[in-house]
Amino acid sequence: MVSKTKIKTTINTILTTLFIILSPPLFFYFVFYQRTLPNTYVSDVNIGGLTVDEAEQRLKKEIKIPSEIEIKIGNQSAYINTGQINLVFDFKKMAQDAYFQKNRIPIFRQPLSLFQRVEVRPVLSYEDTQLEKVLEEIEKQITQKGVKPKAQIIDSKPVIINGKAGIDFKKEKIKKELDLKFYNLDFSPITLNKISDEFILDQKSELLYRERIEKMIGKKLVLVSENYAKEIIDEEIARMSDFFEGYDKEKINLLAESIKKEFDSPPQNPILVFEEGRVKEFKPAKDGTIVDLEKLKETIIESLKKLELEEEKTYKVEVPFVRIPPDYKTEEINNLGIKELIGIGKSRFVGSTPSRVHNINLASSRLQGVLVKPEEIFSFNKTLGEVSKETGYQQAYVIKEGQTILGDGGGVCQVSTTLFRAVLNAGLPIIERHPHAYRVGYYEQDAGPGLDATVFEPSPDFKFKNDTGNHILIQTKVDNESKTLVFELYGTKDGREVYLSKPVISSTSPPPEDLYIDDPTLPAGQIKQIEKKAWGAKVWFDYKVTKDGIEIFSKRFYSNYRPWQAKFLRGTGGQL
Q: Residue 270: which of 21, 471, 563 has the closest Cα?
């Protein structure tokens, strides 16, 4: 039986031991009651032993957000505005996190913080989408591709221009680095390294490149075909070379494209004219040729390689191409069903300027001899092609976007209007037709209002369908003495009859008062008219086509012409 004395001694021992164990932590607990543990840090800011409010104030005092963060690339810099991305630190939350950090550590282990550092992660926020935009702008400013070395032949000597390093800017990488810096309260510049150093040749590689270019001196590649030859001399070959890939594919592509542009020719149908009751040819049919572009690129590269290796100074190679036959051959012209006149249209252009007359003649000549297939929808714009200075047209007044202005091809609408009248006379279906914005005097010299058709590349367009079952031949005649344009359509009559009512003017409206615009570029007192007045009018006419007494189709054409104001420039400059 255990004595009372021994029990008492054991209890005292246990109590003494518990006191020894618990008294330091309890003492520590009371000392740091409602305070952070000692050695508590947010980055390098010590907030140990402080209350939450004290810790918050110290963090505000110690942590200063700069107005911008620098990104350094070589000798240039870009900047991220921290206000623009709304970079904000939550100091209160950081102080609270530091205090709650203590509560997560057992009491008996808390005294160890006297010797161990307690880290608290910064709490921050920024607008991610705004940062994305800022980085995109910086990327555009500073990203540079590495430049490959170049070779040239100057005065029959090889010259090597070494490559250059590029600058790489990866947004995602920068964002990760920014996050790391923010959480470490590190606002020092971000430094980017240049890239593409592989494009910079060492001395040995540069020597090899020079030796290669020396082999090209005095050599040339000749691309030949029927009625075509193009020489590529040593200087051009050197510029197309690439130390790493043999030849620069981009430059080879440009060369091939330029050859294709020079070489390609569309097939040409025979140009026909209807004379003495029959179709005659005045220009024979011709095959078209189209370069096989991909094969040409391969041919150029393989030929240049062989030229480098061989001793021959000149290497000839055929241009790879395919032939495109015309729609009709010369011997087929008598089988097209072109037997007689089926429609005629006329217009007069008295008073036209020389440039307008030039454009009427040019546009008409490009429609002369055109064949329209059975069931084909004819497009005026597509058939005529580009209307510009480059295609031979001169500047004359055109109606565009509600204004009469100088533009390439003024007068082309005289041609489309005359063809419109011929198509009506032939009884063909009109697919697309647009009236002018206002009444134009040229189109009413020998016809009532409403019989005009405006065009402008690429739209509006004038279109009709050949539903006769035979080909239609377009023939044009321009009489520059009487200022008359005639379109004749030849084909085979199928018994259709055409009814065209006279144009009906349903209402008219007077033009606005004349407008005078001061112009300091004209001498004072000089008046120059730039717009003529025209009455507005709503006009319609009926178009009906019958065959064997049965209506094939009918249509009412409407034209809503706006009243047009006369405009004058009034000089306000120096005296006459």
A: 471
Amino acid at residue number 129: T
Rounded distance between C-alpha atoms, residue 568 and residue 532, angstroms: 9
What is the b/e burial string over 109-118, where b = at least 16 CB atoms within 10 angstroms of the residue's CB? ebbebeeeeb
Beta carbons within 8 Å of 507's beta carbon, 6+ residues apart: 537, 538
- How distant is the alpha carbon of residue 214 from its chain centre? 41
Query: What letter does residue 564 receive in the DSSP assignment?
Result: B
* Token reading at 116: 């161990």
Residues 6+ apart with CB under 8 A from 568: 514, 515, 516, 517, 527, 528, 529, 530
- Counting other chains too, the contacts that 101-110 makes at CB distance below 8 Å and 24 or more residues apart are 101/36, 101/37, 101/40, 102/32, 102/36, 102/37, 102/40, 105/37, 107/25, 107/26, 107/28, 107/29, 108/21, 108/22, 108/25, 110/25, 110/28, 110/29, 110/32, 110/37
H or E stretch covering 489: strand 484-491
**Do 539 and 505 meet the contact criterion of CB atoms below 8 Å apart?**
yes
For the record, the structure tokens of 3 come out as 């004595």
CA pair distance 532, 440, nearest whole angstrom = 9
In sequence order, what are the residues at sequence separation of 6 or more whose Cβ sits closer than 8 angstroms to the Cβ of residue 257? Answer: 293
Amino acid (1-letter code) at residue 449: P
pLDDT digits (tens, 9 = 90+) for 55-112: 889 988 888 888 888 888 767 788 889 888 898 889 998 888 888 877 666 665 666 6
Confidence of residue 19 (pLDDT cuts 50, 70, 90): very low
Cα(24)–Cα(15) distance, integer angstroms: 15
Nearest Cα to 101, choosing from 32, 54, 26? 32
| Cβ neighbours for 301, distance < 8 A, ≥ 6 positions apart | 246, 247, 252
Backbone angles phi, psi at 224, to 5 degrees: -130, 160
At a CB cut-off of 8 Å and minimum separation 6, what does 243 contact? 148, 149, 151, 201, 205, 209
Q: Please, how many CA atoms are within 13 Å of residue 284, restricted to the half-sphere of its CB? A: 4
Taking only the tens place, the pLDDT of each residue in 482-514 is 999 999 999 889 999 999 999 999 888 888 888
